[in-house]
Design goal:
By secondary structure, this protein is α/β, with parallel strands linked by helices.
Length: 434
């Protein structure tokens, strides 16, 4: 074989053309280079380039499929076509689809312009197509003649392995670029290594990173696992920070005995926080205002319920307080109960009182059994129970509240679990100040 074509004269295409020139007459085609001054390389038309014995596609991953589809009839049946992309499953599928009559295989040189050194050992991964399995061994011999170390893998093995190396490197590098962190006076070794990763990724195009995410299923899975691991580490940091801060002040919606009270105490237990004080601030606006003014360090608010939908006072409050951020979500199962005074002998209440969310969650129940009884909105479920016990509501009114409010406020349980959904979760949020 005497001629080899390089399609795409970007940073890697230039390097690959130089490597090939030691054994082949190299033809170059790139739409962005019409008259370059590289004497030992032949810049030519696409039609002429595709007549070469070997054709190497050094173009972006996302361009391979459209390029092959558009030019499939211009390839010669006695040529051998290679893609050089950093993913292999998808490019080989494209080659199989658009060039079934032209021998083809996949290559991935594990080096680039920033890491290649003449005379050093450099590895290239070879992935044979199912249509032309015999090309695997032939390609290994070809690469050895070029002074390169060759290893044959399946496309699946390649993509899984590369996601853990190149995929992780570019993921971290792109995150560092987004952060833009500098350290002029304390350049530790670890920080210097990270900046080297960042610079390495800056030398590649953003298109490469996007294509690796789009066309390597293992890299997409890696990103998901990376995100989950990041959240786990972040939670551990927050957990330890909260545990180490004495006397945590946390404000909640509702009063003692409310669902917010019960949910917040369970959340604190999960976090291992034992030194805290809960401020019962009744409304979302009170919690947000206390956070704004520094009276509390954290807030705990109900955000939405499976049956009742979003908690409007929380959503509206968050929209008015721009320097508040959501630090964590905490789902909590809510069990609504119907309570009355112990001295109430009426079999039907004169009215039913509770927070608007609780009334929504029990709408089917109240319409079925107490259709003619008016429902009255209150600021909080537990506050309704307390007001009933203190005589601030009619004595023959009933309330919807948590079960333990019966014991807490000396009321009688009429019916347990009256919510419309058997599983009735409410999403709470932990909020802090930016």
């Amino acid at each position: 074989m005497k001629t080899a074509a390089v399609i795409g004269y970007g940073r890697f295409g230039r390097l690959w053309a130089e490597i090939l020139s030691s054994q082949f007459t190299v033809k170059i085609h790139d739409t962005h280079f019409s008259s370059p001054s590289v004497k030992h390389l032949q810049f030519t038309t696409l039609e002429n380039a595709l007549k070469s014995e070997l054709v190497f596609l050094c173009i972006p991953i996302s361009s391979i499929g459209p390029f092959l589809e558009e030019n499939s009839r211009s390839f010669q049946p006695d040529s051998i076509v290679f893609d050089t992309a950093s993913v292999k499953i998808q490019p080989l599928k494209w080659l199989d689809e658009y060039l079934p009559q032209v021998p083809h295989a996949g290559l991935h040189p594990l080096f680039g312009p920033d890491s290649y050194k003449p005379g050093s050992s450099h590895r290239v991964i070879v992935c044979a197509s199912d249509q032309y399995p015999e090309l695997g061994q032939e390609t290994l011999l070809l690469l050895e003649k070029l002074g390169l170390e060759a290893l044959q893998l399946s496309a699946e093995e390649h993509d899984e392995n590369i996601s853990a190396s190149q995929g992780m490197t570019h993921l971290v590098g792109n995150i560092l670029m987004e952060l833009g962190v500098e350290s002029r006076h304390t350049p530790t070794l670890g920080f210097t290594l990270l900046k080297n990763v960042e610079q390495f990724c800056r030398n590649d195009t953003g298109q490469l990173f996007r294509d690796m995410l789009a066309y390597n299923p293992y890299t997409r899975d890696l990103v998901k696992r990376f995100s989950a691991s990041f959240q786990a580490v972040l939670k551990e940091i927050e957990k330890n920070a909260l545990r180490d801060s004495a006397g945590l002040e946390i404000g909640i919606m509702g009063v003692e005995g409310s669902f917010s009270h019960e949910a917040s105490e369970r959340w604190l237990a999960v976090k291992g926080i034992t030194d805290y004080r809960i401020q019962f601030l009744v409304t979302a606006e009170n919690v947000l205002s206390a956070l704004d003014t520094g009276q509390i360090r954290l807030g705990f608010l109900a955000l939405q319920n499976a049956a009742g939908g979003v908690v409007l006072e929380t959503i509206e409050g968050l929209s008015r307080h721009s320097r508040i951020n959501i630090q964590e979500y905490y789902p909590f199962e809510v069990l609504q109960c119907l309570l009355k005074r112990k001295d109430c002998e009426a079999s039907v209440p004169v009215s039913i009182h509770s927070h608007p969310q609780a009334l929504k969650q029990c709408r089917k129940y109240t319409q079925t059994f107490y259709r003619d009884v008016p429902t009255v909105e209150e600021e909080d479920t537990a506050l309704s129970a307390r007001k009933l016990s203190l005589g601030e509501l009619p004595g023959d009114a009933w309330v919807i509240a948590p079960e333990h409010c019966a014991g807490l406020y000396g009321l009688e349980l009429v019916k347990k679990g009256i919510q419309d959904l058997d599983y009735n979760p409410t999403d709470f949020i932990v909020i802090g100040k930016v």
